[in-house]
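Open question from group meeting: does this chain pack into something compact, or does most of it stay loose? Before anyone orders reagents, we agreed to write out a predicted structure and look at it together. Recording both the input and the output here so the notebook holds the full record.
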Amino acid sequence: MTRFSSGEIFSCTSEIPMVNAPALAGGEADGGWAFFFGGAYECAPGGGLYGVRTRWGALSASPARCIRADPGGAAFYGNAVPMREDGVLWLYAVVSEAGNWERSRIEVLHSPDEGATWRFNGHLPLPRGFLVGTAAVRKQGGGWCLPVYDELGWQSYVLLGKRAGGPWELSPAMHRGVKGIQPALWEDEHGGLQALVRTRRGRLIHTGSPDGGYSWTRPRITDLPNPNSRIAVAYDRGSRRLLLAYNPCDQGRPRFGPNLLSLGRQVLRLALSPDGGGTWPVTWRSEVACGFGEYAYPWLASRGHGRYLLAYQDCRLSIRVLEFAADDLVEANPQGLPHSLAELRDWRNNRPRLRFGGADG
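Structure tokens returned:
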């Protein structure tokens, strides 16, 4: 029987009534960190960046710790991307003082003692409106690729550097002529870069760079649906298996007055491509969560030996993590039918009621 281990690692409180955009950073063999931002609502003044220490096997977590917040309550924090190198944990985090993402900057933090203390290293020298939000790639031959995107122009780029702490070189735009943000990046078996990108077109786009980020192929619109929502990928070079976490819908997300109904994010799916993204067999897919609500902002991380972690936000009221093996996706759904994991049924039955209000991200 297929085994999926799942758990809630953070649930909203009166002090943190909204959370979003989890990011995972491994450290020890059975644990690490999960980061996310939270506040009264998205873009609310005084929102902060939080982290919890986790144990993956038992999927448990410590109480949330505020890593970064504005004491004056004017700034708010957003997506964060962790990177680990030589025992140092680096964190690139979005912050804005202007009440919108278009005026944001990217802060650089690092911790030399596994998250016990954090030091501020300034801001990346990029124009306002540049954000991070998807996982960095450590290249096999050395060096790092950190995806960034421009919220104003809706274009994606990659920062190229030899060290996790920089300095960085900005690549050319990844998909000129087609708008998209939050690129999900991986390095293929030839050392080139590949990316799937969120769009407003109802489909993901794909582009590649044979020279490690210095030039990009013409973007191609895929058959993979996307309702203007963040995705996550994880690639195994040995088997050429590419995992994708995404919302399999091509509808956008309308607003109704001050409330937000997340049309298109009610289903979160795991899909597997056996050939590095060339094809996505219908028989290898499985629903992680579905219902009336929002299950979004996935983050995939490898635990090795074919096992993975998937973090995502549930209705912006909690952060959940699912542990699974890639082979389990085939076993869970051999007939290629829409499938909800049995171990996750209680999530839909017992999840908190939706709260409305705030801004869209």
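Observations to bring back to the group:
DSSP finds two helices and 28 strands in the chain.
The domain at 5-350 is CATH 2.120.10.10 (Neuraminidase).
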